[in-house]
Amino acid sequence: MLNIYSMIKKHRRIILFVCDVLLWNLSYYLSFAINKDDFLLTGEMNAFLCGLPVENICFATVFLLFRLYDKLWRYADIEDFFYAGIASLSANLAFMVTMMTLGSFWAGFDLGSKIYVTFALMSTFFVVMFRIIYRLNKILERRNLAGKAKKRLMIIGAGEGALSVLSELSKAPGNEYIPVCIVDDDKEKLRRRISGVKVAGTTYEIPELCRENDIEVILFTISQISISDKKRILDTCAKTHLEVKIIPNIYNLMTSGVPITSSIRQVEVEDLLGREPVVFDTEKYGKYIIGQTVLVTGGGGSIGSELCRQIASLHPKHLIILDIYENNAYDIQQELLRKHGSDLSFEVQIASVRDRAKLEHIFKTKHIDVVFHAAAHKHVPLMETNPEEAVKNNVFGTLKLVETADKYHVKNFVQISTDKAVNPTSVMGATKRICEMIIQMMGRRSKTNFVAVRFGNVLGSNGSVIPLFKEQIRTGGPVTVTHPDIIRYFMTIPEAVSLVLTAGSLAKGGEIFILDMGEPVKIRVLAENLIRLSGFKPYEDIKIEYTGLRPGEKLYEELLLNEEGITKTDNKKIYIGKPIVFNNDMFFKHLIHLYYVAQHNNKEDVEKIIAEIVPTYHHSPNG
């Protein structure tokens, strides 16, 4: 049986051609029989036989010229069927012209206009219908196979994205989905069909349609949509407790040549943020990096590695990736090599920002123009139990780096800060506030433009709650949330880096740049939506447990100190916090004292001095 199937597949074109020949000749015979009202062709056999070879030659020639046998008819669409009809009518025209020309010399070739018209209609009908039936048979075969094992799919959006997905699903019988219905808010598309799948309703009817059609998976395919509408639709999908997937950018996928279905992914938290993403305007803000030597500390981390990616596309003279953790540094090194090859001049330095001698060597030999300082200890609970290490790395690593940058006349220095530096309740947040003060102090007296950039939680970063939630959902729960009322601001890693790069171009010295991050998000709601969009019911399929605030953790984060005023920049998403006035000499004395107790690993004195330096620091072991 397998050999027969392989033989048919191998000789598909010949078999299709033979079928067409039979259909032409059947149409030719019927056109005589119907018009002469005689199926035995009494008295018409000579005329029939005179035209038979001419008909076959004309049709075969035209069909071959139209390359009808190069098409895969099991994947044909309406344009292909129309094309076959045009080919048949063209063949009929060629046959009629040839016969009439021959008829001017030999009367036996004059068939009459009725036969020509009947033959044209019948042959075109048979040729097109044969292909339509063949195509429908293949669709039914796939659906019969699909109905046994595949997930029932609802598609959101009746546009190009849906058409591309349906086309690919029809071509790949091994895929895991069977499309059942489509929803779209365009009323003109309602009750119509795309590739045989009905547009059954609007996005407001998603829950009802899912119940009626036993939907198992929802696929979001709309690329051109407002953020608010996208969030509304995804929130509606979450109410169904079904698995929801998304195709990120249909146009980019179609132009890249990557199969659409291979890019289907789970809905991510950034899809639910409900605000427009921050985009870095390369032409406007990226000029200060072009042709410069750029150093990124912590270059292997989540923020640092994204900085390296975006900087690499801005054509720096040389990029230096500095990190103490060689595995992360190696990963970004290999990624940049794969993407840019010899077009990007860069190197990796395995070093700590706490090593002044190594920093001196790098700055002296590499002639650095721009520094992005992303290296830091950031994990709040770990720094609560290791405050001296937070001070050694965050405070004095930054101080050594800042002093070295000033000594070697770096043009721009951008410090990565955090919203946890505002009214800090954790050691980590307090050390980052001290780093901001170092930046402000140096900004007053240095020719280098020292600035800090403050933003909230970064989705997908190392230590972020989102990967933890996903892993907990994958393993069946429970999902752990510290407090039912805890809220956070969120942004994506590319957004954070866009802010950092933009801040570098706006730097004049001593500023703290703040991103307009939209509305804060309740972590409890975030966990519930992630559970729903993964196809489960929160508190039933996946439990949510509240574990209590961790040491140093706050119920909510702030982006601005009360005593700070804000001024606008020419980027509507970015503001500047007014620098706080403090005594530089007293601040430096406190730093010397802090350095001494940290080196002696005196945890209690470390926290006392931090409180003296940062008056807004109100430490509590319970947050």
Structural overview:
By secondary structure, the protein is of the alpha/beta class. It is built from 21 helices and 22 strands. Helix 11 runs parallel beside helix 12 (326-340) and helix 11 (302-312) packs across helix 18 (493-506). The protein is 49% helix and 14% strand. Strand 12 (412-416), helix 16 (427-445) and strand 13 form a beta-alpha-beta unit.
Set down the secondary structure blueprint:
Layout: H1 2-10, H2 12-36, H3 45-65, H4 78-103, H5 113-149, E1 151-156, H6 160-171, E2 177-183, E3 193-194, E4 197-201, H7 206-212, E5 217-220, H8 227-238, E6 243-246, H9 250-256, E7 265-266, H10 282-285, E8 293-297, H11 302-312, E9 318-323, H12 326-340, E10 346-350, H13 356-366, E11 370-373, H14 380-385, H15 387-407, E12 412-416, H16 427-445, E13 449-454, E14 457-459, H17 465-474, E15 479-481, E16 487-488, E17 490-492, H18 493-506, E18 512-515, E19 521-522, H19 523-533, E20 544-546, E21 566-568, E22 574-577, H20 584-599, H21 603-613
Helix pairs in contact: 2-3, 2-5, 3-4, 4-5, 8-19, 11-12, 11-18, 13-15, 15-16, 15-20, 16-21, 20-21
